[in-house]
Sequence to fold (582 residues):
Amino acid sequence: MYSNTQTTSFQYDILPTFPVQGKLSNSYDELVDHLIQNHIHCIDGFVGVNWETPIKHIQQEFVKRGLTVRFVSMETALLPEAAIEEKVAPYLGGNDPLFGKKTPLELIAYFDTVKLAALQGMLKQATDSEYLIFYGPGAALLEVSSQVMYIDLPKNILIQRMRAGLAGNLACAKQSDQKELYKRYYFVDWELLNRHKRTILARVEILADQQSAENLPWILGNDLKATLHVMSKNYFRVRPTFEPGVWGGQWMKEHLTGIDQQVKNYAWSFEMIVPENGILLENNGLVLEISFDQLMFQESSNVLGAAQPRFDVEFPIRFNFLDTFDGGNLSIQCHPSPSYAKAEFGENFTQDESYYIVDRKGDAQVYLGFQEDIDAENFRVVLEQSFRTGEPIAIDRYVQKFESQKHQLYLIPHGTVHSSGTNNLVLEISATPYNYTFKMYDWVRPDLDGKPRPLNIDRAFANLNFNRKGDVVKDTLLSQPEVYTLDAQASKVHLPTHEDHFYDVYRYEFADEVKIETKGQCHIMMLVEGEAVELTTANGMKKIFHYAETFAVPAAAKSYSLRNLGTAQAKVIQSFVKDHKC
Fold:
């Protein structure tokens, strides 16, 4: 019988791909032909793109053709950096090391209108003797109706470049520390660049992926649109990303094939999350990565179905792993209320979570809710004293802990004090915002960089629900399974969530096969026990998913089947937006 706790690696694809409807190219020769034939003079792109490399190769192709080409950087039309800093300052959270507020700024706010008009004049007066190419973020602003090229960069690659000192913030010459750089990416750069990308997506004739040092895979706009449309009626799986952390564990290193073994530990695997994951497209051995949000920009109605009017292009549910096997405890923490998340951070919904225990060992614990005799004022005094003195706290005097149970769902609506203890592999099923963890106690330990981890005691106490204590926790935050028999070999288990959760959770258990209807909702799933399942959609597409892989079936797929390919029973977790919340 298949064991999820075996130490040998099992099949897990860290580079999942979707077939392109059309073709991919890696040829600069073909690229330049297409630029010329379609009179494309504007190459827009994302922050962190290394423009020197594609510009060099494009110029070489023009020289081969005996043509003169002139490149003009959009940086020449930017406002002075001091003026840009003044515009973005209100969204950077001041001295707060972690939190800002999502900006409503548009990309055009970074530009000097006089200089921008001058570039537009240059474009209009261009002659056949010199081919003008304007490049950089905002290039599409020069021609509001013409076709453009867009060079994208996956956000995880951007973060890698940032950590290596190879990428900074948009229109910002100064180099801050990494926390400040990331904070500005999250609250400012990504916000205005994603809005810009959404507005120009219909005009993108060529989209390229610049994560490689030399290669530049690209796709024509119509092929990209066709691919996303097919995806939106069948299935998708994003490229997972993995991050170490001070409490990180060894489960993923020991079990996931292809993962980097040189990293000390892995704390997180982002299995499906719009803000950072990408989607890999494949054709004839070539692979191109697009941002997850591009699928949402084009096909949000097909993907989300009945939930789309509420969430627009935001993908509402995220799946990620928390690995503490032979690691440490997570911080004692909570998450903000919806009103607090909106007012403080500009988020449209908050971080309502749940912990699903995929694997565990020994005496693994989950910290959840307060002890019955909790005294809020005393608890705060103890936390603040520990922060000042570095003295540890006997935290279970204040916070309840439960022995974790495999396949149990622990409910963590906003305001609930919680943590995962050591030796759990947690599938965190949550509303998508993921950056708002208010740490109150972190076991008096430094971060991976050796510096103290920031605590957020004030923000936590503005959100903590002290009524979630004692027996209330057992009665309302430990999901009670409801089993429904489907046939002789299959059952459906409802794992009810809290009334504050806008998503629901089910588990399908089957020996052979189950047939499922989407009923107007996007289904996010993971095989949490078994070896592999084969998905077949109503449109006839097939795809095999292995243990611990997350995948989604959009609402527009309407129906699909899952066939068990293993020798033991398959168990598949499924989450979707509750109907009455749409």
Observations:
- Residues 482-581 form a domain with the Jelly Rolls fold (CATH 2.60.120.10).
- Residues 178-200 form the longest helix (23 residues).
- The first strand starts at residue 17 and ends at 19.
